[in-house]
Structure prediction request, 528 residues.
Amino acid sequence: MKHSIFKYIMISIFIIFAVFIVVVLISPTLYIKTSNLINLLINNQEITFSLILSLTTSLSAVFMATIFGVPVAYVLSRYDFKFKNIIDIILDIPLVLPPIILGLSLLVLLGPIGGNYLAKIGLNFVFTRLGIVMAQFVVCAPLLIRSLKIAFSSIDPKLEKAAMTLGDNHFQVFKNITIPLSKDGIITGVTTAWARAMGEFGATVMLAGATRFKTETLPIAVYLNMNTGNLEMAVTVSIVMIVFSILIMGILKIYNNNQKRGVTQWF
Amino acid sequence: MWSQITKLGVGFMLKKILLLILSISLLFSFNVKISAQEQLDIYAAAGLIKPMEEIIENYKNEFGIEINTQFNASGVLLNQINTVKKGDLYIAADKWYVNKLHEQGDLYSQYDVAKHTPVIIKNKNNDNIDEYSDLFLENIKLVVADESAAIGKVTKEIFERNNIEEDIKDNIIAKAETVNKVKMYILLNQADAGIVWKANYFENKKELDMIKIPENNNIIKKISIGILKYTDNEKEAKKFIEYIKSSKSIKIFEKHGYNTY
Prediction:
């Protein structure tokens, strides 16, 4: 008796929560006619512009995050050093800080403080697309590092040591053992970081501003159109982002499921 | 045995404390509900924050009424009002917005509070422009407000009226959501010039330089306040309008750099 009441409660709460999330995600579609939606998607230049801008900036940001993230995660998972705990915490802080605060810090650093020096070497972050990439980078890199750290840490160091006794140097071990074994973690981490970069809003608005047809990413397009009372546009862009998120998560899930099946076949 | 008894005792104490906290918070939430009648919801243009906060604070202290103010761009507020269909008063930085509500039949009464004059501002450490006509020089970096803010709308009108919209388009490096944000970017020296209301310059005249827009190029606007038809406290709203007409409030506007009627 007790056993099934417990099960009943758990499942009921699960159903309530799942239904709630589904309803929340479907709501925008109830606010616009399908014909208007399709029309806006095909013809509206603002949506096309923001989609392309979001894709190019977020992919650049994730690329940079990977270039920095892999070494950082590697060091954090493989080496021990003084103050490691403090540095660990500091590198995790951007994850819990509201993005708008990260954006403000970036604005102050790359604007009044460092702007002139950076401009001399041709780097302009305030109000530019480069600023979008920077804002997205600062927000998604810590996320990527955390996933990579877990992925690297889950590899048995004995495997790496064995490879070294057989003659591989550090780089070869990294290339042939560490990376392939942490492939799943890397792919999941990069995908999640990319999704986060696509959805980045607070830091981007602060550093790059919210200028139509210039620094207008998809989230900023929603914001600007809500500001001007253009509800149908805002809803359309929201639907684009929801569909994108479903696709990303779906592909990731299928990939992970396939990998699991693959592993059972190996062993 | 004693440890078990003290544990029980602590358990009871904790439960009593929790109950006490819960009942007090319930009482408080009740209080808020009861005094909903004695409350005004005001939509106010973001650029008017300095004088409005002072006037509202005085009103609250004198009459003991709760006032909720939403500060945002005039156009954004207008959309909000049309969407939520709630609120008592709306003060916009451009009479145009209040008139819009009037045309829709959503306004009870209206009053012109003060004049608004667009001016150019630049950071004291920036020497790239000296006068109005420098705005359309090459490589000048200009920040204006988005058209959903009253200052953004009048900026566009000024450019159109003077036929410089095309020339100046490439100089606009960013559009900010409110006039306060335009000012902020100039204070951070992230652009050579911005266009704000004269009163906004006045608030920061120590850090900013003002360049006048020539009279025959400029467009002066009226700050206007109206009572929304959605108000459920018309008497109080009328009282607030009388208060904002009073010489005490007019002096507050003038103190912050506004030209009144």
About this structure: Residues 231-266 of chain A form the longest helix (36 residues). Chain A has 13 helices and no strands.
